[in-house]
Amino acid sequence: MAANRLQIQGDDSVLLRVTHANLKTFSADIRFSLQSTVDSVKEKLWKKCGTSVNSMCLELYDDTNTKLSDLSDNSRPLGFYSPLNGYIPISFPF
């Protein structure tokens, strides 16, 4: 099923599959508010995987593992990058 069909109408959050480039065994489904800034997403991920916020670089992939964008502006809301349920942000140290 395509990720865009998994989005719940009227919901301001998204369920993302999170993986870590340096921790091959790390994978989690985490719900994020689309209003959360990239910086607050990094804070939430820090608590889950232990990589410091300043060492993270987030990339957004779709459900076919095609890279869509770098989440490079820490002040932007996650929704700016238009993630859908099932998309994958990757965090890894610089």
Description:
- A hairpin with a 6-residue loop joins β1 and β2.
- The chain has 94 residues and is of the alpha+beta class.
- It is globular, with a radius of gyration of 12 Å.
- It starts with 12 loop residues before the first strand and ends with a strand.
- Helices cover 13% and strands 31% of the residues.
- InterPro entries: TBCB_Ubl (IPR045172), Ubiquitin-like_dom (IPR000626), Ubiquitin-like_domsf (IPR029071).
- One of its GO terms (molecular function) is alpha-tubulin binding.
Describe, in short, the structure shown.
With about 90 residues, the chain is an alpha+beta fold.
Give the H and E element order: EEHEEE
Helices, by number, come to 1
Counted beta strands: 5
User: How are the strands ordered across the major sheet?
Assistant: 2-1-5-3-4
Low-pLDDT windows of residues: 1-8
* Beta-strand percent range: 25-35%
What is the residue-mean pLDDT, rounded to a whole number?
83
Q: What structural class do the secondary elements suggest? A: alpha+beta
Main sheet overview: 5 strands, mixed
Shape: globular
Write the layout of secondary structure elements.
Blueprint: E1 13-20, E2 27-33, H1 38-49, E3 57-61, E4 67-70, E5 88-92
Parallel strand pairs: 1-5
Antiparallel strand pairs: 1-2, 3-4, 3-5
